[in-house]
Write a structure and sequence with these properties.
Number of strands: 12
Family: Belongs to the SIMIBI class G3E GTPase family. HypB/HupM subfamily.
Shape: globular
Strand order of the largest sheet: 1-8-7-9-6-10-11-12
Largest sheet: 8 strands, mixed
Keywords: GTP-binding, Hydrolase, Metal-binding, Nickel, Nucleotide-binding, Zinc
GO molecular function, one term: GTPase activity
Number of helices: 10
Organism: Methylocystis parvus
Protein name: Hydrogenase maturation factor HypB
Structural class: alpha/beta
Length: 315
Amino acid sequence: MCTVCGCGTATVEGEKKATEQSQSHDRHHRHDHDHHSHDHDHGHSHDHHHYDHAHHHPHDHDHTHGEGGEVIDFGAGIAGVHVPGLSQERIVRIERDILSKNDAYARDNRALFAAKGALALNIVSSPGSGKTALLVRAINDLKDRLAVAVIEGDQQTSNDAERIRATGAPAIQINTGKGCHLDAHMVGHALEELDLRAGGVLFIENVGNLVCPAAFDLGEAHKVVLLSVTEGEDKPLKYPDMFAAADLMLLNKADLLPHLTFDVGACLANALKVNPHLQTLVVSATSGEGLAAFYAWIEARAAHAKTHAGAARAG
């Protein structure tokens, strides 16, 4: 969670314009950014010495030691995370406050998608899994059949947005600075710059990170997690929250399998251990393998979003 990593401020391309526009309409993307407050509890229950190094520190957190001393688990407390200086109870309170505010913005975004009849997909992965390459390929293959728009998230640069725009699709870059994920408030600002179409799809390429993006609802219909065969079969077990939050996993870079010892069956089994309802596809953004099934998955859901919006308008 971001009480750990200390997310910084974000900038959205055209933010000044977006801010001016936001003051003239009734969507409430407040500019308080108070979810990045930093509270500091200093619970000091006891001290102990680490004799294998030359310092000692107070224990204000929960962790467990494995029976043989081979594992120190800082995720064992009620918060599931460790933040120096904060008690587990205080971390839980802060996280609830952050997520409740995010969820309010997410509801606004979701309502906009529903009214427009557009399908929003939150694309998440670790860095280097091939998210942007996959989107470039998908947009080129789908743009004659679907209206596509993209929100790009990175800490710095507009490189990925420029790659997307080269396909002809509109793209807004969000730079998160020190932040490690997109939140619903940032996405709300970007939406003010995009013209979503009924039956179209909005791809939201999140910051490369398998931890924090799992916790933040952006108002999307589905999280799609991308994993590449150059990573490890046990990634779903190492980062279970992300695979538990996703509805679809794309195992990418399948064209490299002849050159690797990657066990596809073991990887898919590990993913299903975390999330038995997770749908999985083996794909390659380079060769196109498996992408027809991905496109069919998208088009079916985009058609449903359009139909649902039309039915809602008809009353």
